[in-house]
């Protein structure tokens, strides 16, 4: 009896996580789609996490960064900081982060 109950519960848990995963993946896909469309249109889809201003894409040393048009905050995508610090000659960011 207990086994049957356990199995049923396990099944429900699996179903729950499966559904959650699916939702997360679909949300991620949706986000990526929005970002791609925005990129194609030459605008950033991102909102500033700090003040809700618009993030404008600009280039620093060949790396595109997002700058807020309201508070001036600068946001980097994953890997972009690395790209900036890796730059030869120890540029501004390189010095800043001990590159
Ligand atoms: Zn901002």
Termini gap: 63 Å
User: Would you count the extended β strands for me?
Assistant: 3
Mean pLDDT: 80
> Uncertain regions: pLDDT < 50 for 5+ in a row?
none
Which range best describes the helical content: under 10%, 10-25%, 25-40%, 40-55%, 55-70% or over 70%?
40-55%
Query: Strand-and-helix sequence, N→C?
Result: HEEEHH
Based on Cα principal axes, name the global outline. elongated
Count of helical stretches: 3
Q: Which ligands, by name, code or SMILES, are bound?
A: zinc ion
Strand order of the largest sheet: 1-2-3
**Beta-strand content estimate:** 5-15%
Largest sheet: 3 strands, antiparallel
Structural class, by secondary structure, is alpha+beta
Return Rg in Å.
Answer: 21 Å
Overall domain count: 2
Task: Provide an overview of this structure.
This protein is α+β, with helices and mostly antiparallel strands. The protein has two domains: 1-43; 44-99, no CATH class. It has three helices and three strands; from the N terminus they run H-E-E-E-H-H. It has helices at residues 2-40, 80-86, 92-96; strands spanning 55-60, 63-68, 74-75. The chain has a three-stranded antiparallel sheet with strand order 1-2-3. The longest helix is centred in the first third of the chain and has 39 residues, at 2-40. The radius of gyration is 21 Å and the shape is elongated. Zinc ion binds next to loops.
């Amino acid at each position: 009896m207990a086994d049957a109950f356990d199995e049923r519960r396990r099944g429900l848990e699996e179903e729950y996580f499966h559904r959650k995963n699916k939702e997360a993946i679909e949300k991620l896909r949706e986000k990526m789609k929005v970002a791609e469309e925005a990129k194609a249109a030459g605008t950033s889809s991102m909102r500033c996490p700090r003040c809700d201003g618009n993030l404008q894409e600009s280039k620093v040393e060949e790396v595109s960064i997002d700058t807020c048009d309201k508070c001036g905050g600068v946001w980097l995508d994953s890997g972009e900081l690395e790209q900036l610090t890796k730059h030869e000659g120890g540029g501004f960011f390189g010095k800043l982060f001990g590159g």
